[in-house]
């Protein structure tokens, strides 16, 4: 049985707007169920442990998908999510891959979290896939190759676009723009039209552009694990 670690944000404040953020339910639920239904053993972790904050906007009616509806009717998974283990206790040796759901939260904590950075670098160095969707490619802000260059340098990746951030009116709220950061780190950044389904695989890195791309990222990860 393959083992995949999911790492979720613990950050709940949307800058200094007074509003809340966290992880986006669809970006957790769609990959979680796709992998779980294929027999993958999933462990959930977060920087602080316990219940990761859910972005309230991902609970709205227009944000619901079959996967989110399944999650909200699934007490067992809700209980599992409420008891995430602390990121500092995790070792890549115990898993075959790592997956990062998005939401705006990771821009603040996971992008800067030393345990997360070290974990990603360790997965990569041990030839294990690292997957991230939407805002979660923020995790590559500070990750490095063994030679000290940015982990995404020269790699083809995607993530939430500047125009998508503009559309949700948070360009001036977020600490940085995912698209700009990936380009600044030397990545070959690709995208499709706003809100289109799009995921890219380059070696061990699998990235998705937005919530609609979550399942596609998981499909690519599953395929890579089965090789």
From TrEMBL:
Region spans: Disordered:
45-65
Domain of life of the organism encoding this protein: Bacteria
Q: Name one GO biological process term.
A: methylglyoxal catabolic process to D-lactate via S-lactoyl-glutathione
Question: What's an example of a GO molecular-function annotation for this chain?
Answer: glyoxalase III activity
What is any Pfam family matched here?
Answer: DJ-1_PfpI
Q: Which residues form the DJ-1/PfpI domain?
A: 26-222
The record's annotation in Gene3D superfamilies points to: 3.40.50.880
Arranged from A to Z, the UniProt key words for this protein are: Lyase, Stress response, Transferase
GO CC annotations, alphabetized: cytoplasm
PANTHER family the record matches? GLUTATHIONE-INDEPENDENT GLYOXALASE HSP31-RELATED, PROTEIN/NUCLEIC ACID DEGLYCASE DJ-1-RELATED
Family per record = Belongs to the peptidase C56 family. HSP31-like subfamily.
**The protein's name in its UniProt record:** Dimethylallyltransferase
Q: Which organism is it from?
A: Dokdonia donghaensis DSW-1
């Amino acid at each position: 049985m393959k083992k995949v670690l999911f790492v979720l944000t613990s950050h709940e404040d949307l800058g200094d707007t007074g509003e809340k953020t966290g992880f986006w339910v669809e970006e957790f639920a769609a990959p979680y169920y796709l992998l779980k239904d294929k027999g993958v053993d999933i462990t959930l972790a977060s920087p602080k442990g316990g219940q990761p904050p859910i972005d309230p906007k991902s609970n709205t009616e227009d944000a619901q998908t079959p996967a989110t509806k399944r999650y909200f009717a699934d007490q067992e998974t809700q209980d599992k999510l409420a008891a995430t283990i602390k990121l500092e206790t995790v070792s890549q040796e115990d898993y075959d891959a790592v997956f990062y759901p998005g939401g705006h939260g990771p821009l603040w904590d996971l992008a800067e979290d030393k345990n997360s950075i070290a974990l990603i670098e360790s997965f990569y160095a041990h030839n294990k896939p690292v997957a991230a969707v939407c805002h979660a490619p923020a995790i590559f802000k500070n990750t490095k190759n063994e030679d000290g260059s940015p982990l995404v340098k020269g790699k083809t990746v995607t993530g939430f676009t500047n125009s998508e951030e503009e559309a949700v009116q948070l360009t001036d709220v977020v600490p940085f723009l995912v698209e700009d950061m990936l380009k600044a780190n030397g990545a070959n950044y690709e995208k499709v039209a706003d809100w289109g389904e799009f995921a890219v695989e380059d070696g061990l890195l699998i990235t998705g552009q937005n919530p609609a791309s979550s399942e596609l990222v998981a499909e690519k990860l599953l395929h890579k694990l089965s090789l």
